[in-house]
Amino acid sequence: MPNRLINSTSPYLLQHAHNPVDWYPWGEEALEKARTENKLILLSIGYSACHWCHVMEKNCFENEVIASIMNQNFICIKVDREERPDVDNVYMDAVHLMGSRGGWPLNVFLTPDQLPFYGGTYYPPEQWVQILEELATVYKRKPEELEKIGKNLQSGLQTNDLERHLPKNQTDTDTKGFETIRNNFQKLKKDFDEIWGGFGQAPKFPMPSVYDFLLYYHHLFDDKDALGMVTLSLEKMAYGGIHDQLAGGFSRYSVDSEWKVPHFEKMLYDNAQLLSLYSHTYCATLDILYRDVAFSIANFVKNELTSPEGAFYSALDADSEGEEGKFYTWTKAEILEILGEEGQEFCTLFQVSEEGNFENGTNVLWRTTSEEDFSLLYSNRSHPEMHKYVVECRRKLLEVRKNRVAPGLDDKILTSWNALMTKGFIDAYRAFDQPEILKLAYDNANFIREKLTGDEGKLWHTYKDGKAHTDGFLDDYAFTIDAYVALYEATFHEEWLLEARKLADYAIAHFYDQTDGLFFYTSNLSPALIARKKEIMDNVIPSSNSAMAMSLHRLGSLFYDEEYQKIVKRMLKETEPLIQNEIRYMSNWLQVWFMNRFPIVELAIVGKNSQKFRKELDKIFYPNKIICGTTSESKLPLLENRFTEPDKTQVFVCQNNVCRLPTDTIPAALRQLKLIKEEVFQLI
């Protein structure tokens, strides 16, 4: 007998639709029932690719006895954190305030008025039963105590997130900004793993925005250490088990410090950002490793996460046949059976042994060296021969793997993650000039515009089975604006700038807080929760506020919109003490901060060869730039009245609406860019 989750669109909720637990989705029906019956709420949050969510479901939520205890004493609500990140944000913050570590599954107990008083992550069956019975007893005897805890936590939740994280001893940011950032960069270096790349110890997450900042830092300061931190980390990640060595794409994180054993779930947002990062790093270094990895990510998303409509699915599960990583791992005997004795060399390169490097004698494919170095040190094959051999071995193993039971697919479509992926494909197109990659981006942008956009610039958050639902959140707007601006820069189709402006104006009208100059995560038109949060800290995904600041800065530069720029300046003023002292978790903010301190370079290209010139300029790593162009008259401020010689193509290099003399050659434009960079460096 299915429960109420059977009518959900979320794959995660549908996974629990046949549990004996009387689950409700988050909504007024469940909340009203809790109030009417004066019952505690058990809120359980997870996502479809979450391994420990599956474990707790099997051990607890499928157990008839445990389910009976839950149903008798609680109103049980199941939430997909990816469909309702607003609910997840509030109650994850509550668990942190309780002094517990966060994670998923997230299980939180609430009063009938949604006030949290106890929570944690995964619980084994015996402990879970004990918690259920004890909390039910306490509520019957002393409900006022739980109510008091909940009200105290609500007060903490309503504390401004910025105030919570601000350093106690603030520096004079106007005079010591660069010195402070340089000092904190040294702190970041101390936390860097100089052997395997990345930061800290296990587990290790990719954190793409940190490396994008380091690329920017290298660009500004000509700091070779910053570039080295990027290249070492990206090389080790590319060689590691976190990177699927057969089909491409990256898992969410590595459980060890060597990037060897992944937590096998593959998330769209990681691969989107890593595609951008590897593309940027290729432009900065011209190392073909980063090009090859970028192509592997693009192919993975195209082949495994792209819908017939041109949208992108959310994730691939970590588990198959009830085991984590079973789809991806191999015994040595399996490999040799497929490859023959020639497979010994493949096994040596990819660290495959009879005893295994994972569980139960199985192996994760990973390597510690390049094909070229391996051919020189350990093989009689030349580098070209080694590459050809590895490609063929991969092909054979992949053909066999395709016949295995595949991990589950989370086929819901999220606006924010789709926009990140669109931006990733655009960045790859601009780095490598592959039209088929641009088409993937274009198709998805059209999907967002046609299926996920409502009236007056409103966005929906999620789409599945032909239906869009749930009011968009701030990251939906911020990332979509960024994607549309990037699509304009790649195509010079001004319609995308107009769409971006419509979204920006809607976000300002419904998310912006005039009191502190930052944006709420939820719209003022959405149903209220017990706290209305603001995302400040960058993490595996840039915070929605830093992403909005970045988008408004770039959009404001293209339109010369002073209102957008004023908002960005105020956001930076509010967050500057954090920006200068929390480099690792303010990495996207830092890029906006530098762009604001050193005016963005505006490249206006007019004339019949504007796209050809754009392609040449895109090959140069110059992160603090925007590009606009036209082959006809345009009303865009950067282009207006510049189309004076139709048969000639000219580049105007500008800052703050002040342009240098136009040039009709790429080398001359590059010299002007070099001069600007030198001038900035002298100021620092």
Task: Report the helical percentage.
Answer: 40-55%
Q: Which CATH-level-2 architecture of the largest domain?
A: Alpha/alpha barrel
**What summary fits the major beta sheet?**
5 strands, mixed
Rg, Cα atoms, Å: 26 Å
- End-to-end C-alpha gap: 67 Å
Number of helices: 26
β-strand number: 19
Query: Which outline best applies?
Result: globular
Task: Provide the spatial order of strands within the biggest beta sheet.
Answer: 1-3-2-4-5
CATH topology of the largest domain: Glycosyltransferase
CATH class of the largest domain: Mainly Alpha
Question: Could you please describe the fold and organization of this structure?
Answer:
The chain is α+β, with helices and mostly antiparallel strands and 684 residues long. 52% of the residues lie in helices and 11% in strands. Strand 16 (601-606), helix 25 (610-618) and strand 17 (625-630) form a beta-alpha-beta unit. Helix 18 runs parallel beside helix 20 (474-491) and helix 20 (474-491) runs parallel beside helix 22 (544-559). The protein is globular. The termini are far apart.
Keywords:
684 residues; alpha+beta; Glutaredoxin; Glycosyltransferase; 4 domains; 5-stranded mixed beta sheet; 4-stranded mixed beta sheet
In a few lines, what is going on in this structure?
The protein has about 675 residues and is α+β, with helices and mostly antiparallel strands.
